[in-house]
Specification:
By secondary structure, this protein is of the alpha/beta class. The protein is about 40% helix and about 15% strand. Helix 2 links the parallel strand 2 and strand 3. Helix 3 runs parallel beside helix 5. The longest helix has 22 residues. It is globular, with a radius of gyration of 17 Å. Bound molecules: NADP nicotinamide-adenine-dinucleotide phosphate.
Length: about 260
């Protein structure tokens, strides 16, 4: 019997089969979880997510732009109606306008700053607030960050500031929801070749650098992110909340 047999979760942030959220979904399916999915409200996003999830027959697969409260309300209402509860949520969403990543951080526009923060950091708060009432048997929420939220990684710019806010939101949410036995944690992933990563200038250089610098002498595999998600979403991490776990082959421990 799988570790997640009888468990129900919502996965937000699958764009395609190279998404971190999809790697996590595959690990969860492998352990018997039942999953609901959201996708951006566009026909192409829906087509891509549906093609991946449909073989597993999700009861909920809905459009959701995390900037829209009404979209979020509809998704959690649908989960309540379809399942009656949720055991976990995977939040794997980020966006910044391309020019805000290309330009130095000092030139970031007010509008770009708000947009990136809204989608990449505030959305976790909005999601947690709606998920908590459904987590009637306790629950676990995870999100995905990057080392650029702790240290300056040239080119990561605005997204680094979003990740700093995201990681600290994890701690405040863990505090707020802890007494309901809802845990909130974060995976700080090493650089992965995904659609979002294509928007980070110098991403290939970053991956090459990580390759040389990590104690393990390699970059992270998607399966390793999936395995850490299983740990954080499941019983084995029952005493862990408010943490950011680096799954980066050790990149973040090296100063040189
Ligand atoms: P990805 O496959 O492109 O996933 C990003 C997801 O965010 C996509 O599904 C995208 O939808 C969604 N999204 C963007 N704006 C949204 C909005 N307004 N409402 C709802 N969803 C929205 O890339 P990924 O690399 O797996 O990224 C997942 C998470 O991991 C992000 O938080 C990213 O910052 C983080 N991360 C990535 C890396 C890396 O190297 N790739 C490393 C560390 C952390 P559409 O594709 O349909 O637009």
């Amino acid at each position: 019997m799988g570790m997640f047999e009888g468990k129900i979760g919502l996965v937000m942030g699958v764009a395609n089969d190279r998404s971190i959220a999809w790697a996590i979904s595959q690990a969860l399916y492998g352990e018997g979880a039942e999953l609901a999915f959201t996708h951006l409200p566009s026909p192409s996003s829906e087509r891509r997510v549906r093609a991946l999830a449909e073989p597993h027959g999700p009861k909920v697969l809905l459009p959701c732009d995390v900037q829209k409260d009404e979209d979020l309300d509809r998704v959690f209402q649908a989960c309540a109606e379809a399942y009656g509860r949720l055991d976990f949520v995977v939040h794997s969403i980020a966006f910044a306008p391309p020019q805000e990543l290309r330009n130095p951080y000092v030139q970031v526009s007010r509008a770009g700053w708000h947009l990136a923060m809204d989608i990449s950091a505030y959305s976790l708060v909005a999601v947690a607030n709606r998920a908590a009432p459904l987590m009637t048997q306790g629950g676990s929420i995870i999100t995905i960050s990057y080392y650029g939220g702790e240290k300056v990684i040239p080119g990561y710019n605005m997204m680094g500031v979003c990740k700093a806010a995201l990681e600290h939101s994890v701690r405040y949410l863990a505090w707020d929801l802890g007494r309901q036995n809802i845990r909130v944690n974060c995976i700080s992933a090493g650089p992965m070749r995904t659609l979002s990563a294509a928007g980070i200038s110098g991403f290939d250089e970053l991956r090459d650098h990580a390759l040389k610098k990590t104690p393990l002498g390699r970059n992270v595999e998607f399966e390793e992110l999936g395995a850490t998600a299983l740990y954080l979403l499941g019983k084995m991490s029952g005493g862990v909340t408010g943490e950011t776990i680096h799954v980066d082959c050790g990149y973040s421990i090296v100063g040189l």
